[in-house]
Amino acid sequence: MNLPDGWDAGELARAARLGALVRAGGDRADARIFAARAPGRVNLIGEHTDYSGLPVMPVAIDRSTIVVAAAITTAEIELANADPGWSSRRFAIERRIPPYETGDWANYVKAAIQGVIDHFARRGRFSTPATLIDNLQGASMVVDGRVPPAAGLSSSAALTVSTAMAFMAVNELELDPIETATMVARSEWYVGTRAGGMDQAASILGRRDHALFIEFDPIRVRAVKMPANAALVVADSRELADKSGMVRAEYNRRVVECALAARILGCALKLDGVTILGDVVRASPGWNAAGLVEKLAAAAPARLGADLKEAASILGVSQVALEAELLGQGSTRIALDSNRPLEILKRARHVLSETERVIRAADVLEAGRLDEMGKLMDASHQSLADDFECSTGRLDAIVECARRGGAFGARLTGAGFGGSIVALCDVASADAVIESIDRGYYAKLDTGAPSEKSENSRAVLHAGAGASVIDLRMA
Ligand code: NG1
Question: Which of 67, 258, 346, 468 could cysteine-pair with 387, CB 3.0–4.6 Å?
Answer without folding.
Answer: 346
